[in-house]
Design goal:
This protein has a 13-stranded mixed beta sheet with strand order 2-1-12-11-13-14-15-16-17-22-21-19-18, with helices on both faces. It has a nine-stranded mixed beta sheet with strand order 7-8-6-5-3-4-9-10-20. The protein contains 15 helices and 29 strands. With about 525 residues, it is α/β, with parallel strands linked by helices. It is about 30% helix and about 25% strand. The N and C termini lie far apart (about 60 Å). The chain has three domains: about 160 residues, Rossmann fold (3-Layer(aba) Sandwich); about 230 residues, 3-Layer(aba) Sandwich (Rossmann fold); about 110 residues, ANL, C-terminal domain (GMP Synthetase, Chain A, domain 3), CATH 3.30.300.30. Belongs to the ATP-dependent AMP-binding enzyme family. This is Acyl-CoA synthetase. It comes from Achromobacter arsenitoxydans SY8. GO terms for molecular function: medium-chain fatty acid-CoA ligase activity. One of its GO terms (biological process) is fatty acid metabolic process.
Amino acid sequence: MTLPYSTFSAHLDALAARQPGAPALIDQDQPIGCAELRTRSRALAAGLAGIGVKPGHRVAVWLPNCAAWVESFLACAHLGALVLAVNTRFRALEVADILGRGKADWLVYWPGFKGIDFQGILDGVAPADLAGLRGAVALAGADGAAPVSVHGKPVHRYDALLACADPAPAAQANAGVLCFTTSGTTSKPKFVLHDQQTLLRHGMAVAQAFDYDDKACVLASAPFCGAFGFATLVGGLARGVPVVCAPVFNAAESAQAVARHAVTHTYANNEALVGMMQAAAPEAFSSVRLFGFASFTPALDNMLDLARAAHVPLTGLYGSSELIALVAGQPRDPAEGDVSARHLPGGTLIYPDARVRARDPETGQVLPHGQSGEVEILSPSLMQGYLDNPEATRAALTDDGYFRTGDLGYTLTPRQFVFQTRMGDSLRLSGFLVNPVEIEQVVETLPGVRACQVVGATRQGKIVPYAFVLLHPGAQADPAGWTAACKAAMAGFKAPAGFTVLDAFPSVESANSVKIQKHRLREMADAMLLDSSS
């Protein structure tokens, strides 16, 4: 794939010259043209340089989806600063961890934002965790006010930096520019480092793979701070088509935005897409060419029916922080792969020279197509590495350069695969590798059960499945009846060894969804079985 530019500044220069008035962003229904975006981001770069932001500095950007997020990223890219993308769902302990371990020099945030109490959260961060900060940049609130300091560090107004009359410094060459954080469901998040050229190339690959043309318009349904939302943004920027964004995702408002701006593409978790299609009449989606989805909530089985009624084409997706999201999408054309897998997570890799394989986690053997193992991917979108963590970087890669995804799946071709679940969530039962979703879907058909999570627990030295369930209102637990029904519906080794009713599943919020902490469920299940055997 030919890459005309290796930096965002050079790409933005060309975009502004070619189509100055064409909208690059539509922020809360306000269009921002390509030339205007260039002007604003360069002015911000000059302002940031004026307060001391230098090449190599780390700038934590803690903002919702808005023009300021994009301008801050582009300004930092121009200056050669590294953006630490901070999840807007994070709270004080998590923000403190990111600012501290990420060695942030600067923070950009929106203290007066109504949807999230950014200032209150930041006030809850211990001063010691902000010791490395040189200062902060704050967007003014609706009343025009902004704090003058945070824990003794100076706070500069965003609008004042935008008004800087100094010329921006010369653009820096390609270098590391963006760090996503991993979800941290089992350990502290890692910082996944990508350089400008890789991100730009990925945006161009996304635009090509998902058929963007001059009439395309992309809705940003996921936060820019995560790999999913950023891939959506960079695909639009790379192709020069508008990206529609709003600070807070709202299903009904997003459905209205699809109709108002003739949106052609969006990518979201299936829960968000279901909410959008339930919130508007089918004709609201007449402009849509493709909705891509990731199945974070497999129990939502009405998505396909809603899409058919609205004539919305759907396809399953795959991505990660390390490979960037949208690195694969299930094919819509038989020439690109097996279209029967279209509504399954995974897909055909969007780079022609990318490759995928599945490896048996016990024997280390690469498996034939159709057999489940750990998915390994070779892709040009691979991260530079984990920031400040060369050991973790080495451990994540095979000797021949494939990324060990930690996901369970199977291949259909050397470029197409199906994602099943995280490897840590898969179960080795009676010698067979089992996807717990298979068991969960059976349990969720049982009387009274609203939702289920299955984990592997240890009983007398063997791994057995254990089920945690949420009940419908007024329903009663029936472990004996549930066990009998499971044994009648599945192989005996798949029937849960026990059932525990919970009020809610333990979870942690990521940029794209609320992720269930299965390691905590495994600890609970081990304790349950230990108690029952004593």
